[in-house]
Amino acid sequence: MARALSAGLRRVVEDADPVTGRLKGTEAQLAALVRRGLAFRHPRSPHHHFLTPAGHRARDTEAEPAPAPAPEPAATGVFAARTGGEATVPGTGSARLREVRGAWQGLLELRRMTNPDGAVDRPCGWERAHLVQAAALALEAAGHDPAVGDAEGGYRVRETPQPEAVAVHEPDGAALRACAGTLERAGWQVGEYTEPRTRARYLLASPRRV
Fold this sequence. Notes:
By secondary structure, the chain is an alpha+beta fold. The chain has helices spanning 7-14, 27-35, 53-61, 93-114, 125-129, 131-141, 173-185, and strands at 22-23, 39-41, 49-51, 156-159, 166-169, 188-194, 201-207. A four-stranded antiparallel beta sheet has the order 4-5-7-6, covered by helices on one side. A three-stranded antiparallel beta sheet has the order 1-3-2. Helix 3 packs antiparallel against helix 4 and helix 4 (93-114) crosses helix 6 (131-141). The chain is globular, with a radius of gyration of 18 Å. Residues 44-72 are annotated as: Disordered.
């Protein structure tokens, strides 16, 4: 289990800018937060430090979360978005909403800090390397309902053989089109297709580059 934050580190996290997550503290404090995966140091001068999604969650819940699972790198503050079909739902209610909101805001900040022009309206390199998690986070953050277990209703985001493309399945046509709109607003290129064998409609989504 992760160790609780010291009072000094807790104050640094709580005093972070509410919009950007920018941190102010001593070099030792900021380095300690980076080691815990709660902050990252921007690679460009003046090398400010910012909260990761995990850092935003720690601030919102007033407790440091346990280390998040692979495959996302610790430096980005890993968040397990619901891709649909999970047998175990990773939390519900207001706590989950705060977690999702913090992860999405952290991802927007990551876009701003890592896209060459600072754009937040299109995916960044991390998202292109983690397509399923990135698309699922965009959908969950917008309020779409993922499928639970073997239930038919809800979205499912899955890998595809195509490079830089994920498939989004949703049996309800209106909900599928709503998912398409959400992904487009999040900076993805989306097309709707029909599965030849089952005739089911699905989306193919790819991160927009320009």
